[in-house]
Amino acid sequence: MRVSSKSDSPWQQAWREGGAEALASRGASGQLCKLSPQCREKLAGYLEQGPAAHGWDQDRVWTGARAVTLIGRKFHVSCSVSGATRLTRRIGFTPQVPAGRVT
User: Which residues lie below 8 Å from residue 96, measured CB to CB, with a gap of 6+?
Assistant: First the structure.
């Protein structure tokens, strides 16, 4: 094709060097969940109690930031807001944006 090796697509190069196996997905990237399955069950129970049971009674809405705080308080584990949001969604909860927040 008269292109330099730098211009060659990394996918095409992987195909030539390793075939279909070289192009197979390696799965999701990122860290694994820091909470055990038992801790995730406990977290679901805490979330079911509602935010007011844990000190947030102003608008009674779970947010990603509140989930981070709850996880830190109950399990002594730190995580990002996006990580906490993904975790809460996986266990069946959807973090909300508090009413009245400017968007």
Answer: 61, 62, 63
At residue 92's C-alpha, the angle toward residues 91 and 94, to 5°, is 115
- Long-range Cβ pairs for the range 4-13 (8 Å, 24+): none
Please write the tens of the pLDDT for every residue from 26-66: 766 666 678 899 999 999 999 999 999 999 988 888 999 99
Contact 73, 46 (CB under 8 A): no
Quickly list DSSP for 57-72: -SS----HHHHHHHHH
- Residue whose entry in the numeric block shows the structure tokens 């509140």: 66
Torsion region of 42: left, alpha or beta (phi above 0 gives left; psi -120 to 50 gives alpha)? alpha
Distance between CA 80 and CA 3 in Å, rounded? 43
Between CA 8 and CA 50 the distance in angstroms is 54
Contact at 8 Å (CB) between 74 and 43?
A: yes
pTM above threshold 0.90: no
